[in-house]
Design a protein that fits this description.
Elements: E1 4-9, E2 12-16, E3 21-24, E4 45-47, H1 53-56, H2 59-66, E5 69-73, H3 74-82, E6 86-90, E7 95-98, E8 101-107, E9 113-114, E10 118-119, E11 124-130, E12 133-137, H4 146-154, E13 158-162, H5 171-181, E14 185-189, H6 201-209, E15 214-215, E16 223-225
């Protein structure tokens, strides 16, 4: 069963097949570069990596409107629940079944707060398993050695990595991350959305492909089938 990966923009992706429909970090309505072709009725789960506004985005109103659950670390899930959303509270190392898929939250090294600077728990990466495909969404993070553990233990097929620098790792560190994670396909994210995170994505692609990997650049609104 094939899996479709849709890039909506920034760090927002929608992963679906016949039974799964997972929306990650839905920064959509406030992102002028976002392109969403997703039918809301196809959204069965929302996964959040952390609480910053460019990741929390539209998660709460979507959950309230559609009735789907938000999966996030405990403090962030608690915040969402207090705003009327349905939630799954998980912590780092924990995994939970979704509709037609599963997700395990893994370490990311960043910060996490919601509106007004309220602490919203540890940031996370999300390892999403849909059928036999394992997709590692790094969230916002610097380069860190836990990525070597991800390769050794979890063996992701796809690595979605932030490359914009300033708030996350830069392209050169992301190339190292791609090597450490071992995934055959790498998709860059969290770049060129706004001032301060502009990078040369083609240079990143060239360096990743020199590692013998496939680097897939998706523009907002584009998709790939795995």
């Amino acid at each position: 069963m094939s899996v479709l990966i849709h890039f909506i923009g920034h760090s927002c992706f929608f992963i679906e097949n016949e039974s799964a429909g997972i929306l990650i970090d839905p920064f959509i309505s406030q992102n002028p570069k976002a392109v969403s072709k997703i039918n809301p009725s196809h959204i069965k789960d929302i996964v959040l990596t952390h609480g910053h506004s460019d990741h929390l985005g539209d998660a709460i109103p979507l959950s309230v409107k559609i009735g789907c659950k938000i999966t996030a670390t405990f403090e962030l899930a608690d915040f969402c629940a207090n705003q009327g959303a349905k939630v799954n509270a998980v912590n780092l190392g924990g995994s939970i079944k979704l509709n037609g898929a599963s997700v395990k939250l893994l370490p990311a090294f960043h910060s996490s707060s919601v509106m007004g600077g309220k602490y919203s728990g540890m940031p996370a990466a999300a390892l999403i398993s849909v059928g036999d495909l394992k997709i590692y969404h790094a969230g916002d993070t610097c380069l860190h050695s836990e990525m070597k553990v991800v390769k050794e233990v979890y063996k992701p097929d796809v690595a979605i990595l932030p490359i914009g620098s300033l708030y996350t790792m830069d392209p050169d560190d992301a190339v190292v991350a791609a090597d450490w994670l071992g995934a055959a396909t790498v998709i860059p994210m969290h770049y060129n959305t706004f001032s301060g995170i502009e990078v040369d994505v083609l240079d990143f692609k060239d360096k990743v492909e020199k590692l013998g990997k496939r680097c897939l650049i998706l523009n907002p609104g584009e998709s790939t089938q795995m």
